[in-house]
Each structure stands twice: as C-alpha cells, then as structure tokens.
Fold this sequence. Notes:
Blueprint: H1 2-39, H2 56-67, H3 81-133
Helix pairs in contact: 1-3
Amino acid sequence: MDKINSRIAQVYGYAVCFICVIIILVSTHSVIDAAFDYSNPAGATGYGAAGPLSSYEVWRVEFDARRGARPNSPRDSSMTEKDLRRLYESQRAEQLDSARFRALRSLVSSIVFLALATAMFLLHWRWIRRANREPLAA
Length: 138
C-alpha cells in the first residue's frame, strides 16, 4: 500500500512540474510580447493603437466619413485644421496611453505567473527528488 501511495505522489509531483513548465513557457512568451508592446504601443497588436490613428491623413478620412462628408466635397468649416490636428493628437495620445497601460498590466501579470510557476516547479521537483532518495519502509 505504501508503494502505491508513493507512486501516486510521484505522478502528482511530475504532473505539477509538467504543468508548471507549460505555464513558464507561455508566460515567457507573454512577457516578451508585452515588453515589445510596451516599448512601441503604436505598433501593438491587439490593443487597437494602430488603425485610423496611425496617421493624421487616415484619421481625417475616417473622421469625415463618420460625419457624413464626401471624400471630394468641401469640408465643414466649423472646425479649423488646427482644431482637427489637436483632436487627432489628443485621441492618439489617449489610445497610446491606453495601449501602454494594457501592455504594462500584461507584463506584470505574466511576470507574476512566471515567478509563481517557477517557485511551484522548484518546490515540487525538490520534493520528488527527496522522495525518490528515501528508501521505502518495508
């Protein structure tokens, strides 16, 4: 019976170690992605920073389309070019700050998962190694 319990404990320990290795690999990938996204939020994929706010000209076409203006028609003069530039810059800054925050949050959570999975792996690996060295009682 003691041998069966020892095998069950061994299978449990190896299973936890295997799962921890997978979590370590996934977390490492997430840390790398989040670090790149944090360093360049304008090019961050999945955060919405790219797109219409990538350039003023693209944003202006989208802005006019939302307001119902035709591409070659005279533009509404209620907003000056300076006002439109200021609006574009504020929206772009807001979107970049938001992308940077999400990347930082992802970076921190991935590092925490990486640290926890590493600690769990080391604890279980040492426990398995110690259990394998101890002779079974007859």
